[in-house]
């Protein structure tokens, strides 16, 4: 089961000002794979290796994935490292 959602991937890309092709380049995955992971099917429809590649690329660029209720209120989210 993935540690993050499709919405978190989209939000992380927005924080970094990355396009889907840029994320595909950083992960060495195809743009259609990134699109699928960001769709309603989400990362769960992808392989564990692809999910890990996306997680690693985004975290290496400074993204922190937040779990639901990690902050006082709210659902899952993302932020940039300080």
Which characteristics define this entry?
two-stranded antiparallel ribbon, 434 Repressor (Amino-terminal Domain), mainly alpha, 49% helix, 82 residues, 4 helices, single chain, globular
Summarize the structure in words:
The protein is mainly alpha-helical and 82 residues long. The longest helix is centred in the middle third of the chain and has 13 residues, at 48-60. It has helices at residues 6-16, 20-27, 31-38, 48-60; strands spanning 63-66, 77-80. The chain has a two-stranded antiparallel ribbon. The protein has a single domain, classed as 434 Repressor (Amino-terminal Domain) (Orthogonal Bundle), CATH 1.10.260.40. Helices cover 49% and strands 10% of the residues. It starts with 5 loop residues before the first helix and ends with a strand. The chain contains four helices and two strands. It is globular. The mean pLDDT is 90.
Beta-strand percent range: 5-15%
At the fold tier of CATH, the topology name is 434 Repressor (Amino-terminal Domain)
**CATH homologous superfamily label:** lambda repressor-like DNA-binding domains
The overall average pLDDT, rounded, is: 90
CATH class: Mainly Alpha
Which oligomeric form is depicted? single chain
CATH architecture: Orthogonal Bundle
| Overall SS class | mainly alpha
N-to-C series of helices and strands: HHHHEE
Helicity range of the residues? 40-55%
Count of alpha/pi helices: 4
Strand arrangement across the biggest beta sheet = 1-2
The tally of domains stands at: 1
Overall 3D form: globular
Poorly predicted tracts of residues: none
Give a short account of the largest sheet: 2 strands, antiparallel
Q: What Rg, in angstroms, do the CA atoms define?
A: 12 Å
The end-to-end distance, rounded to whole angstroms, is 28 Å
Number of strands: 2
């Amino acid at each position: 089961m993935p540690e993050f959602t499709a919405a978190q991937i989209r939000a992380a890309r927005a924080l970094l000002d990355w396009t889907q092709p840029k994320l595909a380049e950083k992960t060495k995955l195809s743009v259609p794979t990134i699109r699928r992971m960001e769709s309603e099917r989400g990362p769960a429809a992808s392989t564990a290796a692809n999910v890990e590649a996306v997680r690693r690329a985004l975290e290496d660029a400074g993204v922190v994935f937040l779990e639901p209720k990690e902050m006082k209120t709210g659902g899952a989210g993302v932020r940039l490292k300080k």
